[in-house]
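Running this now, will post back.
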Amino acid sequence: MRPRLALSSVVWLGLGAVYFIVPLVATLLFSLQSGTNSSYSLSAYGTVIHDHQFWSTLRLSFQLSLETIAISLVLFVPTVYWVHLRLPRVRPVMAFFALIPFVVPPIVLVVGLLDFYKGSPQWYYGSPYGFLATAYVILAFPYMFFSLDAGFRSIDVHTLTEASQSLGAGWPTTLFRVILPNIRTAALAGSFLALAIVMGEFTIASLAAFHTFPTYIQYINETKAYPAAAVSLMSFGITWLAMLALLFVGRGRQDRFEAGGAH
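Update: finished.
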């Protein structure tokens, strides 16, 4: 028999659904208004879609999110792996440093980074793929670290490493073909959070004078009412679609790994 949900669970689930769904429905209805009468239309969405700044800023933010995820995984996966394997006493120190982006406000962080990197080459200081990517990796550090840390704590790192090396595998093979598939869920969780951070970060991009997707949303909010609601809903949907795409990519790689192991 299928277990029954308790009445209290149904009530709390319903309240949670109402809390999240009602604002989305209200925003949708507002975005469909034409402004001249009580009729509904898709004119606000057409205004946004035909704006070239929408596509250019969206592309930039998405590219920055992929760059942030790639840099974070390259930096933190080997580091956290080595800490769990050989330097367990360093883990509390890394956890402490990972909390710093939570304590330091983004406006303070960007002012400090702008002053620190002002003498760097223009290709880095004046490029969003250089300066902004560095700032976003710092912002994503706590989310990526704690996600990976939870993943490594859920597996027996020492046993997996010793078994891999006893079969003749080197460090790169052990990391990419033994350890990484076992922390796939943790890596995807950190990637989801990094993606959401980059797609929604406004303060650093604005003060650094870079035109990203959140700055475009702010510009629309200040100038156009109905397109502002439309672009807010579109940004919500785009972020969720990107997360689902990352999830399917991760599942596809895991299926190929399991199929290869079966043979």
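The chain is about 80% helix and 0% strand. More later if anyone needs it.
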